[in-house]
Give the backbone structure.
Amino acid sequence: MEIKEINVRYSQLAETECCLSCGGALNYAVAQPGEVCVDLGSGRGTDAIRMAEAVGEDGFVYGLDISDGMLQTARKNAEKLDVKNVSFIRSTLEKLELPDKVANLVISNCTLNHASNKQAVWHEIHRILKKGGRFVISDIYAVEPIAEEYKNDPVAVAECWAGAVTREEYMKHLVNAGFSEVEIIEESTPYAKGKALVASFTIASKRSLKCNCSN
Ligand SMILES: C[S@@+](CC[C@H](N)C(=O)[O-])C[C@H]1O[C@@H](n2cnc3c(N)ncnc32)[C@H](O)[C@@H]1O
């Protein structure tokens, strides 16, 4: 249900120029030549294409998104700029269509708040990172828990606020997925969005080199 609303909303926005980001994940991530990078919720493809230029022909970038309109625009933009080391894949956040330990870097901007099972998303981010691989993610969190009447409303979730969890819950998901020592790179003061008070932040961490995990 939520996916349908997200597809409708973001496919309508795919041909617009409006800003859909909530932080500077791309700039803080600094993709390096030869790296394999992933952008979760890649939208019109701008950040993925910029990373593809940064990683060069020895690197590769995957942009994942669920909205058909966004995927179409992103592919068109890559073609127009003749960027070949990027692929845009239709995928949900909870089950990423990528193999284990594929990425040196995962970025995302203003997307994870839409996911209905955020814990599953964080396990997936951990699964696709190589040992020692890093993520830099910009997202929003709710200053107070979102009211019951809104948090499962698919339209309000697609509007980028009702799916937000509290900062405390956010950090719990990260730790449960195996990320310790999370760095808060930037954080806004609270602001009103929809019917909630939210804040944006950009966070970063690494998959441990020593992890004994099964994947
Ligand atoms: C607010 S936009 C941000 C787009 C881009 N990151 C940017 O900064 O311009 C959120 C994007 O996440 C995608 N998205 C939302 N929920 C998703 C889900 N559950 N699975 C995959 N993609 C999703 C939307 O289609 C949309 O392109």
